[in-house]
Amino acid sequence: MAPNKEMDPMKTSPQVLITRLFIAVVALTPLSGWAQIQTSGTAGSPAATTTIDGSQLPAPDPKFGGVIEDDALQSKAWWAPRIVPPKQAPNILLIMTDDSGFGVPSTFGGVIPTPTMDRLAKTGLRYNNIHSTALCSPTRAALITGRNHHSAGFGVISEQSTGFPGYNSIIAKDKATIGRILKDNGYATSWFGKDHNVPAFCASKVGPFDNWPIGQGFEYFYGFVGGDANQWQPNLFRNTTQIYPFEGKPGWNLVTGMADDAIDYLNEINQIQPDKPFFCYFVPGATHAPHHPTQEWVEKIRDMHLFDDGWNKLRERIFENQKRLGVIPANTQLEPWPTEVIKNWDDCTPAEKKLFIRQVETFAAFEAYTDYEIGRVVQTVEDMGKLDNTLIIYINGDNGTSAEGGPLGTPNEVAFFNGVNMMPVAEQMKFYDVWGTEETYNHMSAGWSWAFDTPFTWFKQNASKLGGIRQCMAISWPRHIKDKGSLREQFCHVNDIVPTILEACEIPAPEYVDGIQQAPIEGTSLAYTFDANAAKEKSRHTTQYFEMMGQWALYHEGWLLSTKVNRAPWEAFGAANPDPLNNQILELYDLNADFSQSQNIADKHPDKVKQMKQMFIEEAKKYQVFPMDASVAGRIVAPRPNITAGRTQFVYTKPMVGLPQGDSPFLLNSSYTITADIEVPKGGAEGMILTSGGRFAGYGFYLLEGKPVFLWNLIDLNRIKWEGPDALAPGKHTLEFDFKYDGLGVGTLAFNNMSGLGRGGTGTLKVDGKVVQTVAMPHTLPMILQWDESFDIGSDTLTSVNDADYKPPFTFTGKLNKLTIEVDRPELSPDEIKQLEEGLKKVDAGRE
């Protein structure tokens, strides 16, 4: 046997010596940013590790450092070192809740108990000057990319996306997420809960999946895709596979389900590789509507009687708590209650008060329940012995409290998106006993939302008011933060979180990812605020624009220029402001002296107003804000690259479930014909042939006790049904539902005038060519079905469109040979377009 060359260092080959020298030099050479290569283990051995400089992701494969001779015995094996984060890099737990304003959590003066956030604030820091974008997925895009929301393609939510770079709902490849950066630097990355950053037209099984969590650097995803979710029966995914963990488990709730899954995941990672740091992005759907807490939490909150004296008193109590805790300045002013928007509590009827209290108790239970489940995840980190070196960032809300329930609230949020936002209290009281259960898709009155945004005004969607954009946050990192329990008042924005995490991990932002040069990070690291003497440090994030659906603002060194609110969030329909940049009343605030944005001083500083408007224009040009668009509901039906776009016929020959609304045939505001060629076996058949949507809005085509049925569920308020008189005999049959729509087109109307949407029509059910029933519908749904429910063929997933007829999955027991959908979407005639334009000119003239 030939001698082993490595046994004698004097006989080591030159190649091996050169490789060792190269590794030693690299290990001692400081690189850009914080990066300095750190290695461990014997170079080339299976146990060797290394950090990377991070400028290029993924890191280039190193050259082979061993020796290759003609035979293995004379050769030297060599393994590339495993990539790891820098030594002592912290674990990261990034938490953000949904639709929750500054005055909600007890940590910042709210009456709803949030002991987990309290705990993190006591062991870390409280931040009272952190800002969102005023809407869900735009905030989330900024949070995970470190860029402004328009820069990341999310000027609005994906369901409103339009064909402009700042609004297309596509996070471009030059803006890698924090998940991708940390994964390629050796972290275990995971995402639990809400993902509202998948384009609505990329949410089906055909993908593409590059804008799903697993395509954005998150190795594991457990959650839902879209803006909201039924917490009892969610449209839930593990990575890209739809799952149904709630089936056969009465009382199962997603808030607990995702905490359970996160706990299991973190424990598995810890057991498999204890030294591998984790990045866990934990973003529950609470407290976005529907408000679905467990009954246990509803009873806990109800027993506390927090809301019996109404929203005016609640606002005052929160305000006093905030001053007592020192989270707002003692001289903060509270504006008068906005009786022109929401009436005083004392002016509510007894029935209204009873309903409104039930609404808010359910919301509060949802908040408290969610904070408790977040606490279980935090406790898991502590039980693993990793809390000391875990950076926990807990942001309360991705925007201000939602007022999309309108002044009266609603048992069905889908109603709001279809223009029904003032459902009579008497109608709502029918749902009183089941409020917050699976039988409702509930939202609370905007009166509570105003109170929960104390000390600020307005709500989610209102980007020009602090009630829409000011959040609160707690950050804990016991090993590093020594000034425990202190308050930080520096201006910050959700786009600051990525650079903060990178600095804490000593990982630089990459210059290239997958060969694509990266756009600069636009946020500012908050790591400077972690120092014990940082309480009086000046803000390093000095300028920030805000814009949402035509309402806008600019922050600069303590000054805030903002547009006067010209639309309440529940006013989503109707003509939009044609010139949102200039057709505005501008207000000016000195936030250094006016914490609550209550003293408009624009008339005293006209030059400042002019200067800051020009600064806003410059920022807007820089970050893809133009073209500005003030339309709201109209953008939901605007054309976008749905995979069905341009198609008028759809043919299916096999059962299929789980096709999301954004990728399925769109039948609203159209004429259409649905034809099913089926075979009925001996003994008859029943079950679902086709359905889209669910309990709170949708349609179904099915056999019930052998009889053909077509049913439209109009936001759970009315159900229109076509039904054949006889059960189908065994054999082949052709079933047809034909609908003739009476409305106009949706092109220009979608952006300017909603009167052509949701009009009526006539439906005809036929069996084997014979008409069996014709029913006229006085109106149809104008905007959406229940968008967390899917388009299903052959069975029904999640909830039923008519609980009185069947329970899911209601699998079709016959044979489906062919299902054909033909859509005839009406177009505007030239005369109609001319009439519309003339009408819009009159509307604009009236505004002037």
TrEMBL record:
Region: Disordered, residue numbers: 40-60
EC numbers on record: 3.1.6.1
EC class name: hydrolase
Pfam families, alphabetized: Sulfatase
Transmembrane feature ranges: none
Record flagged with keyword Translocase: no
CDD domains documented for this protein: PAS_like (cd16025)
Residue ranges occupied by any Sulfatase N-terminal domain in the UniProt entry: 90-504
Example GO molecular function: arylsulfatase activity
Keyword check for Hydrolase: yes
Family: Belongs to the sulfatase family.
This protein's name: Arylsulfatase
Organism expressing this protein natively: Novipirellula artificiosorum
Gene name of the record: atsA_22
